[in-house]
Q: What sequence folds into this?
């Protein structure tokens, strides 16, 4: 759950690229054909796969990481779960690292011409700032939304993970791995053909990656679909201490580590909901992620920098309309203050609120699935309170002046969102010099669960169009 607004001027930031050092090839596994980014670490006999600017060639053994294993972070080098390690090796704060964390256990990925898409003809109006209004309502998910675009029936189940218990093993057609970065281990799930364009879905608060389950199933017929549990959520471990462990720079490090592990030679198409979208705006506007993101789809989550400018603008130029907007959004964002209280949110989520939340969510959002939220919700919500504490006030007080997206953006606006007002997005075009597409739908906040087929279709169209137009290649 988030709140926000957008305004500003045009421009495009630039950032440095990582430097390289030479690496020694293991006796069995993969040999580097180019320098390895500084800070890379690998275990003997374990291959990191491809990473940015680096191609690894097979040497006498299979380095694929996608073997299906039981979940849970490995206890050590002998753990059964494939592990990918990403560290900057600098000893600096994570926000200063360039994010070129890499992986032990990365698969042999195809790049360049080997990457294909099954998508149809693109809509050539992507760069126009236009709005598309969905006309089929916003109630509970319809039967049509439970059927794959290719006619395959929905395979979401309440008795299998993902969905239900995030500690249970995933179905056979879902590949599980772990990425280690910044002192945490992130649980990563992959669907679909890894040779196709990668769509990376980032969840919000108080969710885990299972919020994307149905959307991911629809997309997996056409794309390589990746989800991961944000640090402290689902199957991923939490930073210690919690305070200061959820800053946007550290979350950016996590994203870069996952992106390098699952799509080492090609940029990913980023999709975020709620706090996943807040993170996504950060990823899409900082210089060190350039070249790693092909497009960004934002759903119900603004940039905190844009929000800070929105408040400052209304303070400098007060008006009756602006005052009403501030009051309206303030009422919708009442929970922000509550989450800043010491200890009370944690006690509530681990107690009565955590037990009542699934029922409240189904009634308020008209959701029909029984596999979501997962059993990890109380812990996810308690840990995730630090997303607000670590980021909201610092960014509102000192918003970045150069928070311009360096990729094309698709903005999806649920017009009945209980936490965000549509007028907050009126100026988003000022921050998207590479192009903006607007989509509006009469739906509530949890669009990935209430309208998975509609949302998956919009994501697929946007991704296919960017691939067709080659916007991911500068």
A:
């Amino acid at each position: 759950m988030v709140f926000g607004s957008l305004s500003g001027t045009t421009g495009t930031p630039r950032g440095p690229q990582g430097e390289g050092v030479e690496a020694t090839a293991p006796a069995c596994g993969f040999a580097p054909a180019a320098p390895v980014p500084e800070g890379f670490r690998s275990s003997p006999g374990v291959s990191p796969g491809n990473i940015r600017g680096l191609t690894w060639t097979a040497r006498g053994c299979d380095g694929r990481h996608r073997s299906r294993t039981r979940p849970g972070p490995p206890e050590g080098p002998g753990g059964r779960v494939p592990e990918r390690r990403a560290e900057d090796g600098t000893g600096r704060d994570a926000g200063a690292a360039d994010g070129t964390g890499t992986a032990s256990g990365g698969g042999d990925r195809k790049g360049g011409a080997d990457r294909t898409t099954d998508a149809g003809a693109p809509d050539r109006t992507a760069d126009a700032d236009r709005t598309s209004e969905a006309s089929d309502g916003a109630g509970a998910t319809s039967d049509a939304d439970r059927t794959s675009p290719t006619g395959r029936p929905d395979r979401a189940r309440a008795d299998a993970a993902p969905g239900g218990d995030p500690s249970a093993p995933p179905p056979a057609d879902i590949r599980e791995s772990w990425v280690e970065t910044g002192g945490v281990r992130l649980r990563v799930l992959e669907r679909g053909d890894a040779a196709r364009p990668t769509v990376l879905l980032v969840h919000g608060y108080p969710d885990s990656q299972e919020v994307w389950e149905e959307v991911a199933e629809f997309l997996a017929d056409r794309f390589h679909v990746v989800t991961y549990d944000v640090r402290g959520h689902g199957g991923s471990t939490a930073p210690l201490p919690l305070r200061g462990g959820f800053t946007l720079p550290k979350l950016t490090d996590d994203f870069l580590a996952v992106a390098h592990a699952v799509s080492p030679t090609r940029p990913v198409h980023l999709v975020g909901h709620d706090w996943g979208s807040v993170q996504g705006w950060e990823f899409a506007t900082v210089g060190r992620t350039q070249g790693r993101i092909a497009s960004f789809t934002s759903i119900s989550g603004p940039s905190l920098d844009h929000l800070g400018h929105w408040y400052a603008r209304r303070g400098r130029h007060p008006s009756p309309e602006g005052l009403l907007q501030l009051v309206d959004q303030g009422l919708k964002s009442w929970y922000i203050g509550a989450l800043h209280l010491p200890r009370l949110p944690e006690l509530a989520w681990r107690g009565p609120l955590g037990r009542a939340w699934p029922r409240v969510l189904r009634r308020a959002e008209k959701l029909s699935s029984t596999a979501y939220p997962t059993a990890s919700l109380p812990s996810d919500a308690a840990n995730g309170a630090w997303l607000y504490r670590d980021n909201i006030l610092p960014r509102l007080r000192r918003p970045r002046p150069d928070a311009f997206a360096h990729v094309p953006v698709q903005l999806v606006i649920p017009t009945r969102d209980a936490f965000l007002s549509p007028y907050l997005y009126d100026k988003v075009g000022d921050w998207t010099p590479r192009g903006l597409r607007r989509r509006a739908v009469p739906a509530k906040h949890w669009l990935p669960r209430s309208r998975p087929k509609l949302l998956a279709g919009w994501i697929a169209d946007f991704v296919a169009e960017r691939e067709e137009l080659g916007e991911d290649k500068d």
